[in-house]
Amino acid sequence: PSQAELQKEIQGAERAARQLALVVAAWPRFVPAVAAPLFAAKGATPADAALVLRGATKLMQTLALICHNNSKASSIEERFKPLVQRLTVAPLAEVPDPAWAGADEVREAVAAARPEGSALLVVAVELSDGETVQASCEVLRPLDLPDADRGPWMYCLQDGRSWALGPPGFAWTGDLRPGRVSPRRTVPASCAPNVPDYAENGIPEAEQSSEHQRTPPVLTPAEAAKARRVAKLGREILDAAHRAVRPGVTTEEIDRVVHEATVAAGAYPAPLNYRSFPKSVCTSVNEVVCHGIPDDRPLRDGDIVNVDVTAILDGFYGDLNETFLVGDRVPKEAKELVKCAHDCLEKAIALCGPGARYRDVGDVVAAHAKRCGFAVDRTYCGHGIGEFFHHAPSIPHYAGNKAKGLMKPGHCFTIEPMINMGSWRDRLWPDGWTSVTADGKPSAQFEHMLLITETGVEVLTAAAAHLAAAVVGGGRRGRAGRDIAPRRCRTGPQARVAVTRGTWNHPPPALARPFEQVRRHARLVVRGGLARHRVALRLLRAVPRSRGEAETVSDRKGVSAHASRRSVRPRSGRAGAASLAGGTRTVELEIAGRQRGTARHHRAPGRPGASTSAGSRSRRALDERLRLLTAPAR
Q1: Which residues contact 3 (CB under 8 A, 6 or more apart)?
Q2: DSSP assignment, residue 566?
Q3: 82-134, pLDDT tens digit by residue?
Q4: How far apart (Å, rounded) are the C-alpha atoms in residues 287 and 174?
Q5: Which stretches of the chain drop beneath a pLDDT of 50?
Q6: CB 176 within 8 A of CB 285
Q7: Any residues with CB less than 8 A from the CB of 178 and at least 6 apart, and which?
Q8: Quick check: bond before 96 cis, omega within 30?
């Protein structure tokens, strides 16, 4: 053949060899199920030998076609039976033949370090001249998962509507690269009552046509109860995913944990096939801002990973996410980023309450992120949630946004600020879902599902081990834009408590109204008007002795001294706090009093840094949330 014809034939041989190698690599169980017996039969191991396939271009094309499309195969061994018959095992010292074209590439792959348990596949294609052999190689990495027999594992493209055996080309912004994604998981028949309309075709038609896209719904008490149940389930699922996060674990394994935990409860994993999203959870590693697709890439020591869980139960959605540290080598800057994202969410929650403006959430988040030296991503926002995954209101997290509306009792929504270490700008990967930072620097995110109540906000997805009480008495805005108290404060042994989860066997007797139970080693925050400081002692006495011993140092003198260190002058009010230390965590009781006679002129609870109300009184309000922690008993 002429030189041009030979060059064209070489290119065809390279494509055929590459295609066959990708077909084999798309099945993670190929190495333990197919390759291991071949190595054992020759008395070799993948560490000192390689799998070699030699033949013509037409043979490679036929093998790739048969192995990829063999839908009748009941096992992976049966699928690759035509290939196994032509594979040989050769010592690494004899691979490659120096006369092969492409020998340098194969030689580099032989010398390079490979993951433990992986095998090297060498494909040598004989050309028509009978002399030239075009060689290429592929490292076959095993994946030891309970359901790794499913396949093929391919690269996601175009919002999950298209798939490819090979990785896509893209101007990657950081070190992260997409991995192979397993086929979509199935949902058992027991979850049928919670299966959404998009489960089959990927189109949420009911959500798109709902009037809730324009007007936030107000949940009835029965609907609020459903929201609490699904939020509790979401928290349990996220905790299960957190336990699976460690170096060496793939995000595909996290997806399996989330999927199985969700369907075991009879719920449906909401991300699955939502607008063709292929998995049951979003896992965002390092520079991924959000909507990362779980794949076969193992987590590495020093990564950060965000796990975003959403479940459907009783027709309601529960949505939350957290960012976790992987291993012990996470850089200090990444830890600071994660803490900043967490604190941004906490400060945003503290703002919430009846009458608060949705647009103010972005001001609070952006201000704290700026103080920490980070930036808020502006592409994505919080959203209403309930009977649908996403609906009004939209809650941007950046300053100066134009979000409309006020928070009202019965509104249910998420706040989920995404904080970037560098620029706020992001880019979209070819899969149509994965959003990454434009400069390749890490991003972190936290999310809670919130319900506005008559007295404040309830954090539906609060963690049991680090329980944060709902902020009670959120302020409303006056005409001058200043915060004023939502109602008149009454004196007497009264306290308002809003807690979201847990069990507490002995409710404190000093409370005037019942409260939801608090789990052991959780955190209970009590805010309200208190006539006498001895209520703190009564709260401590109500706690079972088995949870620890503590003393109170919250007498009036101690409170005054503590306040003076914070440059706050207490007047006629009573305030104090105490805590129980039990093991490695703390059961904290915080009691915040209010000034007598100034009920309408004080800082609204849960609104740190907010301006005080106008009037004849001083605009400098007393910060009544004083905290005195006692040492654990020896």
Answers
A1: none
A2: T
A3: 999 999 999 988 887 777 877 888 888 888 888 888 899 999 898 887 777 88
A4: 7
A5: 465-634
A6: yes
A7: 155, 156, 167, 168, 293, 295, 297, 429, 430, 431, 434
A8: yes
